[in-house]
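Supplementary Text 2. Reproducibility record for the structural model of the 584-residue chain.

All settings were left at their defaults, and a single model was retained for analysis rather than an ensemble. We include the record here because the model underlies the residue-level annotations in Supplementary Table 4.
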Amino acid sequence: MATDVQSTDVASRQGATARLSSSRSIAPVCVLVLALLPFVALQAQMLWRRPHYQFFPLLPLGAALLASGEYRRLGPLRPGSRRGVALLVIASWMLLALASFLFSPWLGSVAALAMLVAVITAIGGGPLLRCLLPAWIFLGLAVGLPLNFDQELISRLQAITSRIGSLALDALGVFHVMEGNVVRVSGRDFGVEEACSGIYSLFSVLFCTLFFVLWARRPPIGAILTMVAGASWVLAGNIVRVVAVVYLETRWGVDVGRGWRHDLLSLVVFIATLGLVASTDCLLYFLPASVRFWRARWADWGDRTATWMVPDPVPRSALDLGAPTRLPGLRETWLGSWTVAVSFGFVGLVQVVGWMVVPPRQNGTDARFANPWSGSVNASSLQALKPDALPARSGNFRREDFKTETRWAGSSLGEMSRYWRYQFRDSSAIVSVDFPFDGWHELPNCYLGQGWALVERKSDPDEAAGEGGRQPVMVAKLAKEPGRHGYLLFCLFDERGNSVEPVGQDYGGLLRHRFAFWLNLWDGRGKRGGASPGSVLLWSYQVQLFIESEYPLTAAEQDEARAFFRELLPAIRRQGPGAGGRGS
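Retained model, structure tokens:
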């Protein structure tokens, strides 16, 4: 009896020790999560700004559904190889460190995905990783495309849709002229916007298709072919939509280019696209089954009992009658390692220090810390811009007209614009303030979509140095047939009135930008310089001057245009967000 009591006491003490050890392991896990969470949250914020990514809140739910299929019957699990897990942890740490240096939420999200693989492998080894791999792949959609490649994809889809749509309109006998992504018919312009080019339905269809092929456990080749078919059907559907908008308006006077009719047309095309993708998947699944059937039929030709239909493979979950899944304790894995926690905590501390550097404006006024979570779009001051916000006359520039325009959210031209039309000698000049944009906006690409050709693009050698200090101004020369020439000046400011640097759309440009920030953190006078890393996540607004003429501007006219543009910038900045260093 005494022996039983002693054994019970020993077992209870061992259980209490195990629970205490597991509870102590939670603290390193919390440090690990906190080090990765900021960049994941920032990536979510950036994805939500882009309408074609706004399905991403459904990704965790879809991943949970994919993971629940086979997770329950894996039996007792053992931690994975320490060497393999260590390599994954080191890779995740290096990605997170690079993300902190570049201030790249995208790289930070990749680091979080790598760490998720390390955690899964550490807990359950290969069996758990194979079980959760479809859910991990599906969750990877939340990373998105890096370096604004989705904007490049938008431009390419617009060009392809416009080109093929023009051929379809020719076949239907609709006389038109294509200027970039604009269809001109009988004095009317039909723009092939981003929504009509298929970028929204492309990401939505790929989201649904990927979930289906992972849920149905399609083989890799079949899954890839189904995804490619989905992208092809999206392109075909949006060509049909663009052609329908132009044809119905020009032939029957039915306007389906805006309002509820356009929404209904988009919904019909989207549903039809999903149906075509499902049909293609059935075809791809049927063909291998047919091959297997005829092979079996040929081998058993003389057997009357030969199978006339190839049965569908039984799902693995229906055959898996293993024991219930049992995870090992945290103390049996590296998740309770304080060495790993401290190393990731150090990188997290570097993030906080890098974000909380408060560079003063170069004109001597303080600028608030560009906390990526503290700012919101403050467009009220820009919306309140009036015709007299800019001078009625300056040199050879004479103001003639003012108008406003509102577009759909997420437009590459900006959701809202304020236009001032000037007469410059014998040419027409447009000054506009367009907003909001997500960081740097490469304006010449918008003119390329309107049929212009880029002749030259460079930085203005006489960058404005008035109020607000150095203001990077870009200069572009454009041309359009027949015999039209364009001269473009533009720059961008963020919500707090700070200049937005034209960072290169590659990691080389980001590296140079980050090196410049860290090296110039303290200048020779002991003052901080450069731009806060968090400023790249603030909304921005764009100021441009575009002069269209029948001849290229002379050197003197270009100098006059640059002087006029530099004169306008302080007036706009005084009335824009962050005026006077107040922040937004």
